[in-house]
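We emphasize that the prediction below concerns an isolated chain of 364 residues; any contacts that depend on oligomerization or on bound cofactors are therefore not represented. The input was used exactly as deposited, without trimming of termini.
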Amino acid sequence: MKARLKTDLIDLMVVPGLSGHEDRVRRAIRTRLDDMEINSTTDRLGNLTAHFPGTGPSVMLFTHMDQLGFVVRRIEADGLLRLERLGGVPERALAAQEVLVCVGEGRDVPGVIANKNHHATAPDEKYTVTPYRDLYVDVGLRSAQEVAGAGIRIGAPVVYAPRAVALANDRIAGTSVDDRAGCAVLLEVARHLKARETGPPVHLAFTVQEEFNLRGALPLAQTIEPDIAIQIDLMLAADTPDMGEHGDIALGGGPGISLYSFHGRGTLNGVIPHPAMVDLFEQTAHAEAIHLQRSAQVGVLTDLSYVQLVGQGVASIDVGFPMRYAHSAREMCDLGDLVHLTQLLTAALARIGPDFSLDRDDYT
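Result of the prediction step, given as a token string:
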């Protein structure tokens, strides 16, 4: 399992898929589902779903396949590009980063976010962060005409240059670990669901536009109308010197569940999980001898914040894997955590039978 997870993760990390432009990622995932002889469907927004019949409460198990990045805002006469951010891009991590302007498979244009010449940087500039609107991308072209000839237009998607690096101790670093790691896990869960003989109905989905204000999963949930929603995403690892006050999640420490999330700015939304879901994952982790970590964070937001409100309400929980360096060009996860997350999910789904209670009074 670990070898498959590693292969799927690394392969998906190097496929560009800016939010709203996920089609290459979707096709790569659909090819893998086809290879497993699992039928899937795509809706108008681009959400990809595989349906597994069963009995009992229906489950929507999902993760997002898009990534944050930029779009081209302006093309200067000298061929330099100005960018607009899409998603929570950290400005302090941008200067000197390699990027990829996505104009079509086989035609993408590499570039670099320029960093002002150090020898011309004034002392008061050396310790400040340049606002993204003042940054520019150099793709090596010398004029707006050359840029147009390369197929670059206003609105072209731009992502961190795709990279995936295998590090020591089964750690993987690179672009879009958020949330290609979740996609790799769900592909492994799909293999299990295809082979199972009993269990609840599962709608396993790879969603779009999560980084663009959580747009993709809601229409899908409105169509599916699930009883239960389980969302897979990162858990903020707090085991580095700069993150110690943010919780107890550790890379390599096993999968986690979120007990509380709230964005706290912009989109004032979050998730307090349903007690039936908390009990399900705690009991499953105990039975399977899987170490389950717990998260409670402000500043975190997932698709689930809207999915939970569909219909009469959906019993929901965020489940995930520890990740370091979120939203940077080099995120990091641990393959062991992905293995245990896969085992946790498959075992938890097997515990949802026809008599599985979603009555809060049975748990509180």
